[in-house]
Each structure stands twice: as C-alpha cells, then as structure tokens.
Amino acid sequence: DAVVLKALTEDPWDRYQTAGEMAAALRQPAVRARPPEPVRREPVRPAASRGWGWALAAIILVAIVVGLGLGIVALLDGLGTGITPSEVSGPSAGPSPTSTATKPPTPTATATVTPSTVVLQAGDTQVRRADGMVMVYVPAGEFTMGTTGPPTYSAESPHPNVSEIPQHAVYLDAYWIDRTEVTNEQYQMCVEAGFCQAMVSCASGHRDNPNATAPDHPVTCVQWQDAQDYCQWAGGRLPTEAQWEKAARGADGREYPWGNEFDATRLNGPDSAHSALIGCLAYTGDDGYAFTAPVGSYPSGASPYGALDMAGNVWEWVSDWYSNDYYSVSPLQNPQGPDSGTVKVARGSNWCSGSKSARTWAKLGYDPLEASQHFGFRCAVSP
Predict the structure, then answer these.
(1) 296, exposed or middle or buried, with CB in 10 Å at 0-12, 13-18, 19+?
(2) Going by C-beta distance under 8 Å and a sequence separation of 6 or more, which residues neighbour residue 148?
(3) pTM of the predicted model as reported, rounded to 2 decimal places
(4) Cis link prior to 166 (omega < 30° from 0)?
(5) What is the dihedral of CA 188, 190, 193, 194, to 10 degrees?
(6) Short-list 249, 238, 256, 222, CA closest to 368
C-alpha cells in the first residue's frame, strides 16, 4: 500500500523516478505505512463530468501498472542474464600475460542471481545460461591446502615441487565451479559470438590427439588468456588455485578427488595405448580412451562437491601466477596468487600422467602463451 500511495502522490517529484526504483521498493520487507493525510474532497460534479473523470483515472492507473510491470520484468531480466539456477540436486585474477595474438573485445560479465528463498547446500547445481554448463556449489569454509611432503613436480619427476608446501589452512567464500571441463562445442559458442580466439593448431608433444576437436571432449590448444576470455564471456573467470583445490579436495584433506587411494578406473589416465609415447607413463590396462575422453566420462571419480575430471583428461589453467614460495606468504583467506610471474599454474593432471600428478595438491607451471593438447580449463563464479 505504501508503495502504491507513493506512486500515485500528486507531486511528480515525490513519486518514484524510475520503474527500477519502484521495483526495488517492492522487494523491501513490508512495513506498516502511516495512514494518508485526509484528502480534501471537491464538490460533486454532474454525472457526465464524473464519467470522464473516472475514465481518465482508469487510463492513468492502467498506464502506471503496465509501466511498472514492464520495468520490473526488464530489471529482473537484466539481473538474470548470467546464471539460471536449476532444480537443486544433491551430491580478480592477477595481471594477464602479454600475447602477440589479437585480443578479443572485453565482454561485460553477466550477473549471477540466486533466489533468496533457496538455502544452498554443498554440491547443489545450476545451469549457466551462456553455454549450458552445469556448475556445482562449493560453500564457504576452511580447507587444507598443499602437502606436508614430499612434493612432486610432474608425472614421476624426481625433482621436488616446493610450490606445493607448506600445508596450510585456507578460508574461502562460497562459489560455483564448472562440473566438467569446458568442451570444444561450448568454446565454439564463444568464438562465434566474437569474444574468443579460435583454437590454434598444436601438438601434444607426443602424438596428435585424434579427439582434439570432438564436440564433447575438453577444449585444448588454447592459451591462458583464451581460457580467461571464455570465462569472462560466460559470466565468470578462471578459478583461483585455492578454489580449484578445494573443489577437488573437499574439506577432509583427501589425496584424490574420490578418496585417499589411487584408482585408475576413476580417471582418464595413461594406459596400454601410451606405451610408445615418450613422456607418458605406460600401463598394461586400458581405460577405453587413448587420449582425451568426453567430459564427465568417469562419474565414480567425482569430488566431494560433484565436480568431475579433476584428475586426468587434461591439465586445467587457473588464474594464479606460479611461485615456489607463495604458500609461505599467502593470505589465509581467499588467496589470489602472486601479483606477477612468468608462468601460470595448471592443475589436475592429464591423459598421459600418473598417480602422483593426479593428487589434489599437485600442480605445474606453464608458459601462458603456449597452447597444448594437454591443457584445458573450467570456470568459476562467485554468488
């Protein structure tokens, strides 16, 4: 009642000046309005005059209601262009590297709208409107990051990766992260929209991946900036290293996304097809995919929040610069990584690396201007 009375007040400057202002007032908690001041009544006019008066009043009221409705629809539609929440189901980055490639235009990041009546739980899902990606919810809280040692560099390298130590507690605000790696089909949407560079031609370093362009396989052959551009177009950004690790590891400090014991059947890793590939580990088993696999092919390897392929398939770009000693000085709440560097962090291992690289804390540093068939990415969004 108070909102309607204000909208109909005699002085135009005392009314709401925009439909958005009135919509905001309607969304506020209801309060008891003071009774309006007594209205001085005019002498009764002849019937004909009263008829015209009522008709004019009706026209004005209809115009106000229609305008208000259109304003609210426009406002809510504008707020909802980023993430469309789906039915609930249980379980800013550092400086960008300089690239010689032509950068796409910077899109405007769209907003995330979460209904205020929904109490989100770990592993709840929602669908991103831009590309149809399913995202999983990671609630706010503390988790254990890094390892006590011995750290490892890559697949089976004997050189310790001191960037993985010391182990420390980190508090993160709540966020959403993609359930799977971004696919070739989804990345092509961004290319066609004019915001992303097309994939470059690249080799794996061992042998060309015959599935490199398959629609449902993870997009590869993209530089770090390409991944960041895509996430911005989709309404988010690359996850920080801490966000990626918590989504993979959970709050119980597990070694692999599914638990503390390595299980080759829960990820797309090396198998007998890699025996002739230099740099890949050779196994006698066969996981069904000699190179990349369609995203989400290993549901038994899901993390505590329902994120898939966080071990194996492809390494994933994250937003942080790489540093050997960052864990010793990083903030204990929402760390964003070093302010600068020469290489970017990648997480999650790939189709030809082994059990050590599949650990939730494992990482490597990689030139952000390089593109490889071993590298893909996923995005994150803060609510």
Answers:
(1) middle
(2) 165, 166, 167
(3) 0.70
(4) yes
(5) -100
(6) 222
